[in-house]
Amino acid sequence: MRYCVIMCGGVGSRFWPASRSYRPKQFLDFMGTGRTLLQMTYDRILPLVPAERIIFITNAEYAPLISQQLPDVKEENILLEPTRRNTAPCIAWATHHILALDPEASIAVMPSDHLITRERVFLEAIERGFEFVESNSALLTLGIKPSRPEINYGYIQSGAPATANINRVKTFTEKPNLELAKIFFNSGEFLWNSGVFIWSGKALLQGLEEHCPEIARRFEAEPGIYCTDKEAAFINEAFPACPCISIDYALMEKATNVYVEEVDPGWSDLGTWGALYEHSPKNRMGNVTQECAIMSYDTSGCVFSESNPKKIIVVDGLKDYIVADTDDVLLICPMSNEQKIKQYVNDVSQTLGEKYL
Amino acid sequence: MRYCVIMCGGVGSRFWPASRSYRPKQFLDFMGTGRTLLQMTYDRILPLVPAERIIFITNAEYAPLISQQLPDVKEENILLEPTRRNTAPCIAWATHHILALDPEASIAVMPSDHLITRERVFLEAIERGFEFVESNSALLTLGIKPSRPEINYGYIQSGAPATANINRVKTFTEKPNLELAKIFFNSGEFLWNSGVFIWSGKALLQGLEEHCPEIARRFEAEPGIYCTDKEAAFINEAFPACPCISIDYALMEKATNVYVEEVDPGWSDLGTWGALYEHSPKNRMGNVTQECAIMSYDTSGCVFSESNPKKIIVVDGLKDYIVADTDDVLLICPMSNEQKIKQYVNDVSQTLGEKYL
């Protein structure tokens, strides 16, 4: 049967201070729509995969946020990581868990903090992807048709075609510089790496055994461990012993049965304030206000984020700035300096303590 | 005997949103010293005038703030205006009240929201002023020796000398433009109008009777009204019927027995964020932070005001801005636009309601 794994354990530090370690980006109503990114991810996949076969995997500290935001999700559908180990160990565990429920399961794995505006296009791609991996021992990833020479995404170069939309992967690339991004964009061969994967559980485990045995062997267990009351204790032992590594590095860049499905679902990883700005509706001054109350003068190209719905922001004379206000942190910085946010966070936590993380 | 009237009913709207109609500037620890401007005003005059002869006059809505900030002040020393009528009616009432306690009283009247850094110089000037008005039927005002051609203050031109430091007043002037301010500054004849007055109660009432009878007659009462339990009812009738006018317009600019005492007490009216900036200690980046926690990058010439002592401000790439953050309003605007703050306040209250005033 078809399963979905929603990964929701990230910290979203590039959106600090709106995104905080105790309430990261996926748990925020980031687009001002009334639903958090996590809720939107769940709503989106429900027409394709029934609730009982959607598995959430997150850091243990976020369990209360999930219960609060998705009260209908059963506890047994939530896997709680005892520590952070990036996506490879996370996916390995979720796959073992699902295979204990259904050894023939096919699985779509997706992040919980991305924006997708064309849901039907997305779901059709997932559906086609399931069909492909159910008849091929393939590790499939969704590749987004680029709309611009973006330097903030990794790219996937597609090779020989397998079906109308699905090709073999020639290479995965790191984030390119602008010159290279333009070449990628104009070539028509390169797609954005979305972080959405589809495979059969078996193919995934085979791939890990072959290319990342140091993770694969940590999750090997006698029958009667996964999906029993022994699972938590087993994971609390196995998980922290894993290396901290992404599924891209651990598997996708090494395996030979890797495919990419091209799709254009109106996607953004919302990875930065700049990306949020690009993908959000703007008011007539060209500012993104996320439904917060703004009175602006001579101000354009800014994104405003305000955690207090009763607070107003009065702003004059700002161009291309990020203004993110929360109960205990106010950030004001030029949009062009958003890559410095990690430095700010680091400086603040070193000077004033971890409570501001 | 000598009395002091501390006027503390102003709204301080130029410091919005730090200064709010429910907690104006004089009730704030504006310099980050641990004492509010009102408390500093009280502390300053105490060596010269004993607590029982210091009268506070303010709008009725601020009575709780005064009790809270000056718990030792007796209720009988606080006069509560039923409505706002600027300084002339305020001073007329306070004078009648004091004369009922002591018909020979001499009185220093001062605002509660100014900064004075050289207290001894200030007190010596007040002392000399008392001596002068006790032997002359004079309306005396303190004139501050200018340190720059300031365009945000009214000026007083001094005329014929009366004593070493005290001269007759030739003219009062409105705030000048820069060209005129330079002429004033270079002439050596012009002093800043401080809003601090010294006179005998009798001379003040005589002046009002002659030059502002429409106010004077409102406060005429039978004996047994002022300083009795009938005073409040009488004032609630008389006060709102007064025109709304400053003592400068109502009396000082018209009377002939007006004198000015030159003094250099390290004074600022703290009338604007810019003035606050000028008079506050700056950190090594040239920012005024008022003891709030700031992490700044490439930021200079700014003033930061933060009502929440546990909140931090992280700011990058601002030059010469005001950033004033409170629980329900965040203001960011160029220092050079501070005269627009009244417009912001107006726009906000018209759009979002008076709760933001």
**Largest sheet data of chain A:** 5 strands, mixed, barrel
Quaternary class: homodimer
Helix coverage percent of chain A: 25-40%
Strand order across the largest sheet of chain A: 6-9-7-8-10
Distance between the termini of chain A: 40 Å
Mean pLDDT of chain A: 94
User: Using CB atoms under 8 Å apart, which protein chain pair has the greatest interface?
Assistant: A-B, 34 and 34 residues
Sequence stretches where pLDDT stays below 50 over 5 or more residues of chain A: none
User: What overall geometry of chain A do the principal axes of the alpha carbons give?
Assistant: globular
Structural class determined from secondary elements of chain A? alpha/beta
Rounded to the nearest angstrom, the radius of gyration of chain A is: 21 Å
Portion in beta strands of chain A? 15-25%
Overall number of strands of chain A: 16
Instruction: Give the topology string of chain A: H per helix, E per strand.
Output: EHEHEHEEHEEEHEHHHHEEHEEEEEH
DSSP summary: helix tally of chain A: 11
Please characterize this protein's 3D structure:
The structure is a homodimer of 357-residue chains. By secondary structure, the first copy, chain A, is an alpha/beta fold. Chain A has helices at 37-45, 63-69, 87-101, 119-135, 178-187, 201-211, 213-216, 231-238, 247-252, 273-279, 341-352, and strands spanning 2-7, 54-59, 78-81, 106-111, 115-116, 139-144, 155-161, 166-173, 190-200, 258-263, 267-268, 293-297, 303-306, 312-316, 321-325, 329-334. In chain A, the strands form 4 sheets. In chain A, strands 6-9-7-8-10 form a 5-stranded mixed beta barrel. Chain A has a 3-stranded mixed sheet with strand order 13-15-16, covered by helices on one side. In chain A, helix 3 (87-101) crosses helix 6 (201-211). The relative contact order of chain A is 0.15. The model of chain A has no long low-confidence stretch (mean pLDDT 94). The interface between A and B is medium-sized, with 34 and 34 residues.
